[in-house]
Write a structure and sequence with these properties.
- With 330 residues, the protein is an alpha/beta fold.
- The protein folds into two domains: 7-245, Zn peptidases (Aminopeptidase), CATH 3.40.630.10; 261-327, OB fold (Dihydrolipoamide Acetyltransferase, E2P).
- It contains eight helices and 15 strands.
- It has a twelve-stranded mixed sheet with strand order 1-2-4-3-5-8-6-7-9-15-14-11, sandwiched between helices. The protein has a three-stranded antiparallel sheet with strand order 10-12-13, with no helix packed on it.
- It binds zinc ion.
- The site of zinc ion (ZN) has 3 residues, from loops.
Length: 330
Amino acid sequence: MTRTVSASVRALAAGDFAHVADCFAKAGFSVSQPARGILQLVLPGQALRRKLLLSVGIHGDETAPIEILADLLERLRRAPHQLAVDLMLVVGNIAAIRQGKRFIDADLNRLFRAQRAERGDLQTAAESQRADEIMRSAAVFFGTGEAEKWHFDLHTAIRPSHYPTFAVVPDTGGSKQHLLGWLGRAGIEAAILGAPSAGTFSAYTATQFGAMSATVELGRTGELGRNDLNQFATAHAALDAFLVGGTPSPGGRLPIVFRVAQELVKRSDAFRMACDSATKNFTPMAPGMLIAEDGDTVYRVGPETEYVVFPNPDVRIGLRAGLMVVRCAR
Ligand code: ZN
């Protein structure tokens, strides 16, 4: 049975905010659309309102967050006065969404680097210019004022996981309890504290603007317009409560916390991995086990059990082919 994709989902997937921008402008918000698929809603004269950035579609084939955001936005559009934060929305890789692909030339979520030179030969990818637009807009949104800054980059996993919902939290130092508390409320079961070096959008906002940022993996995705949103109800409710309540209240069970033990970087075509892209996220590997080989470089599990996340031996040379994480002591 085919289901028609609702007009609001279709508009958001195309990065089109035309029908919502007006409603917020009439309600007194300062509304700007610095580029297609980017919307900023700021209530003038409220310097201490929290700033919340929600991004979806950074990977074009991850459709569920687009549907969740369309639903949240549709509700707010009818009652714009209820929006209790300054809000920036980003629909990331619009061209890839249109084609139902993860990306066109290169993974957009490796290109958020303040130093353009660090992008290497990816600088010429179609996604590079989009990363620039998004970074410029985020700098304007987050750049001024004393308000608390938050960023959730919403994704869905492309492979099964021992923890269906998890987050990657750029470890910029400082307490993450507030963030972990909200993630618990959103039903996120595990959180990985990682070195903020991977060129991800959440690492960029955390390091450049001191935002409480996380890449949030909400579960398995389906075709646009055909996702079972019940599967995402807890995260949806937590986002809704933040948007209209104005504060990221904690709740639920705190996620289990992991930290990155090692990053697997593919340095050459000789790169071989003991697991592949079909391996479940958080699959445990025993101490000393061989993880990968890359010419003379050998990656082995350290002295304690490590869990493999995002294994993908097919990435471009120079990029991350997987993360090994260990459980943090409580
Ligand atoms: Zn993703």
